[in-house]
Amino acid sequence: MNAQKRNEIFARFQAACPHPTTELVFNHDPFQLLIAVLLSAQATDVSVNKCTPALFAAAPTPEAMLDLGLDDIMACIRTIGLYKTKARHILATCRILVEQYGGRVPEDRAALESLPGVGRKTANVVLNTAFGWPTIAVDTHIFRVCNRTGIAKGKTVRAVEDKLMKVVPKQYQLHAHHWLILHGRYTCKARKPLCEQCLINDLCEYPAKSTI
Ligand code: SF4
To answer: For the chain, first and last CA: distance in Å?
Structure first.
């Protein structure tokens, strides 16, 4: 795909949705975002949003999460997949935040990725959404959209991320993550992409797309 097409794609995403953000519910506090993203691994945002209000009401800070303890954390999140492992990760992460970072989420990629249960994707989401870094966390939706359309082809999520960081025009990098996720979640769906109502249909290079 050439640069002109990519530019037009992101210009259309911006015109359609000037201020995209995560669908995870949190109170704009980096800690709550970190916990919500950690919980969302291999789970839907909807399932996470059902549990986090009670969890954050009981424990809005890392210190309070330590006080809440493993059993009560598990009770709050038991409807989310892998909840036992995630509860252990939350507790271990909170202990590190309290002991090493004064109870705050570090604005630092290496520090974030060293937290239990936090990988590159989660770190990218936190850096982007909580701290305004122009990072792009490639999940299953973004991987699919980028490979189908030709925006950024790659065999692995890291290859797609690296390509996106090279080819997405600077002025669109901050919001590219959310535009691409939302596009994959609601339009360029895995099984049946809604090509007839897709706002980038004429620019998409997916050979199997259906045309308007
Ligand atoms: S035209 Fe179809 S395949 Fe291409 S981005 Fe839109 S929904 Fe996806």
So the answer is: 20
Task: Quick: pLDDT tens for 131-178.
Answer: 999 999 999 999 999 999 999 999 999 999 999 999 999 999 999 999
3-class DSSP assignment, residue 107: coil
Residue 199 near ligand 1, beta carbon < 6 Å: no
DSSP string, 159-188: HHHHHHHHHS-GGGHHHHHHHHHHHHHHTS
State the catalytic residue, choosing from 67, 139, 166, 170. Answer: 139
Please state, in angstroms and rounded to a whole number, the distance separating the CA atoms of residues 185 and 67. Answer: 36
- Whole-angstrom Cα distance, residue 153 to residue 161? 10
Q: Does residue 144 have its Cβ closer than 6 Å to ligand 1?
A: no
Reported as type and span, the H/E element at residue 101 is helix 83-101
Instruction: Give the integer Cα–Cα distance in Å for 195 and 78.
Output: 37
Residue with tokens 């706002």: 199
Location of structure tokens 């290496």: 110
Confidence of residue 184 (pLDDT cuts 50, 70, 90): very high
Quote the DSSP letter at residue 124.
Answer: H
